[in-house]
Amino acid sequence: MKVIKSALVATIALVVGLVMASPASAVAAKFHSVDSSVSGSGALVVSFDERGLGNGNIDYVLMADASAVYACINGGGNHPQAADKETVNDDVSAAGSFESKNGRVQASLSAGPISAGDFSCPGGQRLVLASVSYSDITLTDTTNGTSVSVPDTSRVFFAV
């Protein structure tokens, strides 16, 4: 009888240990979904859903390579063929802190667009962002040390 009780106690202890360990192993930060787009102003927007978090603030960093084409548009809304256009390349980044609710953060971070620098248009024309693209996009949860690669994205505002 003592052997059966000992075996029963050991089995119960093992089951309780496994049940208690399951929630602990499930609490691991993981990006459930992530998406990228370009806003109407040309900024990179990364929307994400990260789960398996504890409660509290979670810090994020967004980084990407950016390429933008700036052009001059005349009063008729056209890009004169003889007009200059300028392509600029640079890195963009953004950081944010979001409160985890029920172990989950659903949020967005925006970065960019990059500046046209010294490029300017002749009188009677206005400078516009003609197109922008973002590549090598990475979103990092710096609180938990998790990162995810984000799909490249681009947008054309004016065909030049």
Attribute tags:
5-stranded antiparallel β-sheet, 1 helix, 8 strands
How would you describe what is shown here?
- With about 160 residues, the protein is of the alpha+beta class.
- It has one domain.
- Helix content is about 15%, strand content about 50%.
- It has 1 helix and 8 strands; from the N terminus they run αββββββββ.
- Strands 3, 4, 6, 7 and 8 form a 5-stranded antiparallel sheet that branches. Strands 1-2-5 form a 3-stranded antiparallel sheet, with no helix packed on it.
- A hairpin with a 5-residue loop joins β1 and β2.
- Mean pLDDT is about 85; it is low at about 1-25.
Helix content: 10-25%
**Largest sheet at a glance?**
5 strands, antiparallel
Spans of at least 5 consecutive residues whose pLDDT stays below 50 are 1-26
Q: What Rg do the Cα atoms give? A: 25 Å
Number of domains: 1
Structure annotation, total helices: 1
Could you say which structural class the secondary elements and strand pairing correspond to? alpha+beta
Got a strand count?
Answer: 8
Mean pLDDT: 83
